[in-house]
Structure formats: structure tokens, C-alpha cells
Amino acid sequence: MRCLVIEDEAETSNYICKGLREAGYVVTAAGNGPDGLDYATSEEWDIIILDRMLPGRIDGLSIVDKLRALGKQTPVIIVSALTTIDARVTGLRGGADDYLSKPFAFSELLARVEALLRRSAPGADSTQLQVADLRLDLRTLRVTRGAKVITLQPREYRLLEYLMRNENQVVTRTMLLESVWDYHFDPQTNVIDVQISRLRAKVDKDFPVMLIHTLRGVGYRMGVMPPEEPEPPVV
Amino acid sequence: MSRFSNPLRTSIVAKLVLGYGLLGIASIVAVSAVFYSGTIGVIDQNIDGKIRAQTERLLDKLGDGSRAALKAEVHRLLTDGVDNDREIFELLDEDGMAIAGNLGSWPSVADAPDLVTATVLRYGRSAPARLYLRPLVQGGVLIVGRDLSEEEAVREVIWRALLAGACVSLMLTIAGAMLFRRTIEARLGEIRRTAAQIEAGDLSQRIPVTGNDEFALLNRDINRMLDRIELLMEGIRNVSNAIAHDLRTPLSRIRGRLDDALRHEPTVPRLSSAAHDAIDDIDDLIRLFERLLQIAEAESGMRARLFERLDLGRVVADIGEMYEATAEDSGITLTVDAPASLYVDGDRNLLASAVASLLDNAIKYAGRGAVIHVRAGLYQGEASMSVHDNGPGIPDAERGKVTQRFYRVDKSRHLPGNGLGLSIVSATAKAHAGTLVLEDGGPGLVARIVLPLAVN
User: Which of B280, B287, B306 sits opposite A186 (nearest CB)?
Assistant: First the structure.
């Protein structure tokens, strides 16, 4: 996967590039607006990570603008210290696909990058999702694990669907809040954790293999994990 | 004092005083002119009219009679005992020599074709007179006139009275203007003195308010503004102190943990665990700042242009459902009563965050076994979302303070939190032109956000 990082602050840029390279991406970095625009428009990228405020008269929003004007649908994530909802709305309305406030955990950025890449990839639109022996029939809304039928509340059903669609991928709490509940705010308490543990009680309890895993400080991952849980990326 | 030593042309007070002074003088002049023309002017006109009428009457009466008849008539008029002390008659021949009359001297006929005012000799005494010199068909001139001595005396009396009146009025105007100026400057002085004290750092100073005049109203307005500024400054001071205090604790905790991890044998698990703990703490700090920014953003009121029409009932139902499991885990019964179609204009995420915050508080403070009702509905004609718990509530005295940033009720200090939740909810309500109302739930607390309904 080819990834372009446009970020003027060297340390943040290194932090992002290093993390992405470790995750297996081919990364190119640009340190100012004009270079960023050059790279973004002259080559093909799988994803662009973009700082909003850049030196050199061309800011992040105008890069997205030019890119979209050229008809390029490259997924773009804006990372910015402008954290207000106002700024976020302007960024997303300006054509970005996601907006991440600085400072951020690299794991959050990576999870969002992966989610975006999956979204832009042509998805297999089957009527049935399956993770190990857990099955979800999208037409009948029937959930089974092995031979057991699992009854879920509507919200639990959507939560499970989102996790299954992102099998083996890291999913953060905010991503769940945004995609399952469609709200963008930071709940003070662990409401999402409680919802997940409810779901887990129905899906994983009484079964030898755990499917919903908590990644400390990051979020969740659904799938069959090797017995030794891998260390989450240390930042 | 140097404060008021401004040159006259820059002082509005001096300009006003000067303006009123000039206006006063102008009105004195106008009144005097009207009075003068109403008295002396009328007298003068009367005299002229009388002289003309008398002349015409005399000539008409005699028709084209001879000079001798005219002479006899002049004699008769001068001796008839009617108004004789003021009448003037003089008949001259073609050469300008006196034929009959009571004048010793008269102006030349050529100089004065019509009515003239001149000094004449009458019975050997010099006197001002108004004269009509009328040439006769049969030759010679008839002079008819009036001695003006008496009118002149009246004119002088009136002039003197007018002058005296003008002097008194002028003095009164000047005195009034000075008094006026001193009063205004005294009132302005109060404002300026207070401003100087505030500028010097004493924000508690207020302008004295006396009476109920325009200055009193202005001073009251300024004082109210100062109250607000003082409150805001106090708020900023409190917030800075609270930030300094609230940050010190987590920062020293982070520092301690990292320090501890490095002082002992640095094993991978130890370092990794310390790093994780540090990141958790730093995330909390970031969240704290985010929330402070959120308050500032909501309070600045810049959001309204991003508002959309939304169903408050839907938001309350969503968030209520989101918290149901959490409440249940805490042994709390949560009931959600949120009918759909309660439309307001607002920011969906901010409002959701506000309900979440109120629910958070209720679950945290009401305690195990409590019952919480979250409702959306109409309240006194407006849209309302309320969270009612049957927990300990907030003491009356503290209810007003809990919306201040970082304020925490003493009993709750052992619970996690930073005292920002209700500040954010309150700021959010304000940003939506609504209010956060905290009421005694008898028992417990009712936290209610009241918002204006959307208009079609």
C-alpha cells in the first residue's frame, strides 16, 4: 500500500511514517504545502494523511480541494490540532474522508487508515458474515455460533456486524461510536466497553475460543487470536 | 486639576456651555427686538399715521381755499386747547417765509420731500419732532408735525429697561452655564475617577449612583458591565488556578511512574507498563483540554451557523439506550421516555454529549439502587430534555455554583471527575439559546436542558 504523509512538523511526521512503515506500508513524506500538492496530484496513492495547517501558502484543505477537483477519489485523513467541531465539519465538508484531532494515538490513526482502505476496496457483498464458527445472516438477522442461536438487541446486532465486517482489524471506541451509533463525541465513561462486554457475554461465553478481544488503550479486535496475544503497538 | 485643562475646542462640556450661552444671548436679543418693535415701533407708526391724517383732513376741509383760510385754520388749531403742547403747524409762503405757526426753525423743503425727523425750535425751545412737509398747489408749504420729546423720554426708558434686562439675563446665562458645566464635570469626574482606579487594578470599584437621571442610568449600566467583567475575571482566575492544580496532580503521577520505572531494574514489562500508564494519564489530560476547548467553543457562540434541524426525542432515546447497560451494571434502573418529533435547531453531537454528561453524573452520584428517569418533551412551551435521579441531589447553596468550571461539591471529591461536566452542559445549552436548570428532585436532582423549539 502506498501512503503519502503531508506534515510539516518533523517529529510528528517521523512518528506517523515510522509507524506506517512498521505496519507494512510504503510511505512518502512531504514537509510543506506545495510539495504535498505536487506529490498528491502527480502520483497515485492508496491513502493520503494530511496536516491541515502547512507552511508554503497551500494548506491541507486546499490540497484536498485540488485533488477532488481533479477527480481523484484517493482517501484522505486530515490530522489537525484544530480540534473544534467547527474545524472538523469544515474539514469533512471540504472533501476529507476522516478527521483526527492531534494529539492522537498511532493505533487510532492506523485503525482509521485500515478502515478507510477497506472501505475503498470493492467489498464482498455477501449476505452472510462469518468469523470462525460465528455466523450472521444479513437477511434474516439470525446470529448463530456453532449450533447455538444467539439473540441480540438491535444495537448489539449492529455492533457485532461492524466488528465482523472488520475481522482481525483494530476497531477503536470512537470508531464504534461513530459508525454504530453515528455520534461524534467523547463519552466520559466506558459506555462502549459496557456494550461490548454485554455482546461478549452473549457471543463468547460458554465457548472455548474468544472472538472479541480487548486491546489495551486501543480498542477491540474481532477474530481468532493466537494463544499469545500480540503486544499492541508501543508508542 | 489637569483632567479638565483641555483646550476649549476639545471639551464637549465647554462647547455645550458656549452653545447654550450663545443661544441665551440670541434669545435675549430676539425678545428685546420683539418688545421694542411692539412698543416704540407702534408708537412711531401711530405718530406718522396721525400726522398724515391730520394733514389730509386739513387740506380736505379747506378744499382749494386760499392761503388766508389755511392761515386762519392753523391759528385756530394752535389755540383750540386740544393737544396743543405737542402739535406742530407751520405755513410757509413761496419764499419759505413763515406765514403762521409755532416753529422757530424747520428743515428745508428740498431736503425732506416726505415725513422727516428733525430737531426744530418750538416756542424758542429746541425739540425733536416728526414733520410732514406738504407743498401747496397755490404755492408755499404746509408743515404738520408732532413734538417727540415725550416719545423720546419713553423710548429712553424702554431702552434702559431692555439693557438692564439683557445684562441680568446675560449674567444669569453665564452663571447657569458655569453651574451646568460644573455639574456635568462633577458627574463625569466620578466616572473618570472610577475608571482610573479600575485601570490601576482595583476591579471592585464602582461609580456612585445618585438620583435617577441620565447619568445615574449610565452609571448603573457601567456598573453592571463592571460586575460582569469582574465575574469573568474571577472566573478566569479560578480556572487558571484550577487548571494549575488539576494538572499538577496527573502530571506528577505520570512523572512519578516513569521515574519509578527507570529507577528500578528496567525490564521490558516494567517499562511497557509504565509507558501504558503514562499514555492513559496523558489521554486523560488531552480529554480535559478538549473539554475546556469545547466550553470555550460553545460559549463563543460561533456554532449557530452549523446548526441543523434535529429531533431531540431521537437524540435522548439514542443516548438513553446507550447508557442502559451501564446503568444496569451499576445497579441502577434507567427509564427512557422520549417521544419522537420534538424538533429543535442545534448541533446533534453537542446535545447528545450534554445528555450523556447528565446521565453520567446521575449514574455516578445517585449510587447503587437508584432510579433514573431520562425524558424528552415539552416544558412550558419549550423543548426539554431532563434527567431525574433519586440520589442525594445538590444542596441548595451549591446548585448555582456547580456549573462553574472545575467546581466540585465537597461530597463528590472522592469520585473521579474534574468538575467540567455541568459547565459544558450549561455552555452547550447557552450556545443553543437555552438554559440548564437544576431543580430539587425531592429527592434527588432534576437536571433539565430547556431549548427553544424549532420554528417552521
Answer: B287
Nearest C-alpha neighbor of B145 from the set B84, B86, B216, B208: B86
Q: Which of B286, B294, B322 sits opposite A191 (nearest CB)?
A: B322
pLDDT at B358 over 60: yes
A197 or A123, higher pLDDT: A197
Whether the bond between B443 and the residue before it is cis, its omega within 30 degrees of 0, is: yes
B416 touches chain A (CB under 8 A): no
Segment B209-226 shows an average pLDDT of 89
Query: Residue B279 pLDDT > 90, yes or no?
Result: no
Assess: ipTM above 0.85: no
pLDDT cut 70: percent of chain B above it: 91
For residue B98, what is its C-alpha cell?
Answer: 413763515
Q: What is the mean pLDDT of chain B?
A: 83
Closest by Cα among B325, B86, B381 to A181 = B325
Chain B hits for A186, Cβ within 8 Å: 287, 290, 353
Does residue A99 contact residue A92 with C-beta atoms inside 8 Å?
A: yes
Main-chain dihedrals φ then ψ at residue B81, nearest 5 degrees: 75, 5
Q: Which of A83, A49, A84 is nearest to A63 (CA)?
A: A49
Contact yes or no for A105 and B279 at CB 8 A: yes
- Cα B444 from Cα B235, distance rounded (Å): 28
CA distances, A144 to each of A65, A161, B124, B328 (Å): 46, 13, 148, 26
Cα–Cα distance measured from residue B385 to residue B376, given in angstroms and rounded to the nearest whole number: 4
Question: Which residues in chain B are closer than 8 Å to A196, comparing Cβ atoms?
Answer: none
Arithmetic mean of pLDDT, B76-91: 82
**Which of A190, A118, A203 lies closest to A157 in space, CA to CA?**
A203
Supply the pLDDT for residue A122. 56
Query: Which residues from A are below 8 Å from B286, CB to CB?
Result: 103
State how far the Cα of B104 lies from the Cα of A54, in Å rounded to an integer: 113
Q: How far apart are CA B376 and CA B107, in angstroms?
A: 109
- Kindly determine whether residue B306 and residue A85, on different chains, have CB atoms separated by under 8 Å: yes
Report the residue of chain A nearest B417, measured CA to CA: A188
pLDDT value at A123 more than 60: no
Q: Is the pLDDT of residue B346 over 50?
A: yes
